[in-house]
């Protein structure tokens, strides 16, 4: 008897939170990242994948355009080394090696923003936080960029996930 499990392919948002700390606020998001077969095959052949985690907080205004009070972007490179048979995640100068794709994706799925200053959120007012994770197809080799633009196999984008943030008196959010 064989049991197969189906995984939705692509990127979706699992859990979001805005944490208050001594230095300010930090957005933290957990994504469900499931690579398509085509993307996984390209990765296994040594094509690096660049994922971009984007975070923003805007103050909505009824009388004018929304005011963006914070924006952060983090690029994570996922690569496979055919010689060592290891996956490597790189964020800036930091990197980590993994024996399996699943363990690399579990780290990739947890993203957090830079620290937002505590005074960025006024005590009164509603804010809308937004986050998304996407595959940066502009970083792919030119021949694959054409396929990525025309095919859905390369569409790994969580779309923007938005939620309301309300600061309270003690600096913590709801």
Q: Whole-number radius of gyration?
A: 18 Å
Query: Helix fraction?
Result: 10-25%
> Please, how many domains?
1
Mean pLDDT: 83
Which residues sit in consecutive blocks of at least 5 with pLDDT less than 50? Answer: 1-7, 170-174
User: So how many helices?
Assistant: 3
Number of strands: 10
How do the strands line up in the largest sheet? 6-5-4-3-9-10
Could you describe the largest sheet, including whether it forms a barrel?
A: 6 strands, antiparallel
How much strand? 35-45%
Structural class comes to mainly beta
| C-alpha termini separation | 48 Å
Following the backbone from N to C, one meets helices and strands in this order, namely EEHEEEEHEEEHE
Features:
mainly beta; 14% helix; disordered C terminus; 6-stranded antiparallel beta sheet; 10 strands; 174 residues; single chain; 4-stranded antiparallel beta sheet; disordered N terminus
Summarize the structure.
This protein has 3 helices and 10 strands. With 174 residues, the chain is mainly beta. The strands form 2 sheets. It has a 6-stranded antiparallel sheet, with helices on one face. Strands 1, 2, 7 and 8 form a 4-stranded antiparallel sheet that branches.
What does this structure look like?
This protein has three helices and ten strands, in the order E-E-H-E-E-E-E-H-E-E-E-H-E. By secondary structure, it is mostly beta strands. It has one domain. The longest helix is centred in the last third of the chain and has 9 residues, at 142-150. Residues 1-7 and 170-174 have low confidence and may be disordered.
């Amino acid at each position: 008897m064989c049991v197969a499990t189906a995984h939705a392919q692509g990127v979706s948002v699992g859990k979001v939170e805005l944490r208050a700390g001594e230095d300010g606020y930090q957005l933290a998001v957990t994504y469900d990242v499931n690579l398509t077969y085509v993307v996984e095959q390209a990765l296994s052949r040594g094509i690096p994948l660049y994922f971009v985690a984007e975070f923003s907080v805007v103050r909505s205004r009824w009388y004018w355009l929304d005011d963006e009070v914070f924006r952060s972007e983090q690029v994570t490179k996922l690569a496979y080394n055919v010689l060592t048979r290891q996956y490597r995640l790189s964020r800036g100068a930091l990197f980590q090696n993994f024996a399996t794709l699943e363990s690399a994706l579990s780290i990739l799925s947890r993203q957090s923003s830079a620290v937002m200053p505590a005074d960025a959120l006024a005590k009164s007012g509603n804010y809308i936080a937004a986050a998304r994770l996407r595959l940066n197809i502009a970083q792919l080799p030119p021949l694959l960029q054409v396929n990525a633009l025309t095919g859905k196999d390369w569409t790994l984008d969580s779309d923007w996930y938005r939620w309301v943030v309300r600061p309270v008196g003690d600096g913590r959010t709801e």
